Automatic annotation (TrEMBL):
Domain of life: Bacteria
Keywords on record: Signal
Protein name (record): Energy transducer TonB
Pfam family, one: DUF3450
Signal sequence region: 1-26
């Protein structure tokens, strides 16, 4: 049997204790390292989670800001639309009122147009007999138009006003034109000279006869040969072949002209 000395026994005990301590320390260190690694992994994962949350938060913030801007834009647009709708309602009411007035005006304007057309026809019939075919054709055209359903009252009124304006202009101009006339029972081609609506003269093409319209008697009457040259000069002036000048020609009195 082997016996160890006391010193050897103590040394063996210390060696065993040291090995046990080292083993425990190693286990503790390994556990600590594992714990630290786990903590670091958790920290990294937590940081990733935090970063992800931060990104989502930023995205949500951007969406919120965008939605806020859109809301403000829509509010402004809606306010504008409301203003437009209010304006359109006012215009609608105005149009409705105008339509009612138009219906009333339509009822009133038709008799007015017919009266104007009849008055113009009568005026031309009583006026100096210049350009008879042209003027009568205009009157007939207006009369025919009055019964046409495809022509609006506005167009009828416009055409009437245009005809009145043409007739009005005759009173402010002089004119020379050539046409046929019945003299002594024969149809002859003559030159006519119109001085506004004051007087209407004729002269044969060879200058052998000069005359004027007698508004009182409603017929043509011959003038003396003294007026041949003045009438000829008047024709040249009306045709712009001569400069304007004074003419010595007979004219009806104001009372005769108004008959």
């Amino acid at each position: 049997m082997l016996f160890l000395s006391r010193e050897c026994q103590m040394l063996l005990v210390l060696s065993v204790f040291s090995l046990s301590t080292v083993s425990v320390f190693a286990d503790t260190l390994s556990s600590t390292i594992q714990t630290e690694n786990a903590i670091q992994k958790n920290a990294v994962q937590s940081q990733k989670t935090i970063d992800g949350l931060d990104d989502r938060t930023r995205a949500m913030l951007d969406e919120y800001r965008s939605a806020t801007r859109q809301i403000k834009t829509l509010q402004t647009y809606n306010k504008h639309l409301k203003s437009l709708l209010e304006s359109q309602e006012i215009e609608k009411a105005s149009f409705a009122e105008q339509l009612e007035q138009i219906e009333t005006t339509q009822q009133e304007i038709v008799p007015l147009i017919l009266d104007m057309q009849a008055s113009l026809a009568e005026f031309v019939q009583l006026d100096l007999p210049f350009l008879p075919q042209e003027r009568q054709q205009r009157i007939n055209s207006l009369k025919e138009m009055m019964s046409r359903a495809d022509v609006s009252n506005a167009e009828k009124f416009r055409r009437l006003i245009e005809a009145y304006q043409i007739e009005n202009d005759y009173g402010n101009t002089i004119e020379a034109y050539r046409a046929n006339i019945e003299l002594d029972g024969e149809i002859s081609s003559v030159d006519f000279l119109r001085l506004g609506r004051i007087a209407l003269y004729y002269q044969r093409l060879d200058g052998s006869e000069t005359g004027m319209w007698n508004h009182t008697e409603k017929k043509w009457e011959k003038l003396s040969s003294d007026y041949r040259n003045p009438i000829r000069q008047g024709l040249r002036i009306a045709r712009k072949e001569a400069a304007p000048d004074l003419l010595t020609v007979p004219v009806p009195t104001a009372e005769e002209a108004m008959q």
